[in-house]
Fold this sequence. Notes:
14% of the residues lie in helices and 30% in strands. It is an alpha+beta fold. The longest helix has 14 residues, at 78-91.
Amino acid sequence: MNCPNCGAPMRLVTGREYFVCDHCTTFHFPNESDEGVRVLGQATDLRCPVCGTDLVTGAIESHLIRTCPNCKGILARRRAFGCIVEKRRGKWTGGKHPPKPLPKDEHDRRLVCPLCNHPMDLHPYYGPGAVLVDTCGDCAVVWLDQGEMTIIERS
């Protein structure tokens, strides 16, 4: 990302969810999506397992994740995912959403892990919410499609 003020490259501030320009000290604070994702936009060498677009860095609740700028999917480390769900549920002030049946059309989907290129496991999320999540046990990552974080958070 380049500085909107002077055009110099911006640097992601370590441990934070914003950028700074070392040339003119301009700050950039990315906007948060509906699911709490702040797209930080730094390119990664990982491809989206759904649409093949290059994943970019992002953050949810101060945890670094990878996200797809095209289909809005989220790749998170399993430990970070647990922390994110706990924090987001703690902030949710709305009512509980009743569970819905799992989507039948997704039962046969098989994604490939962006880290190791092995098939990911598809299974129901073992918490409230009717969501099928893709996981890679070897890499300890979870893939969530657009909208699934919100369902998990509000169930």
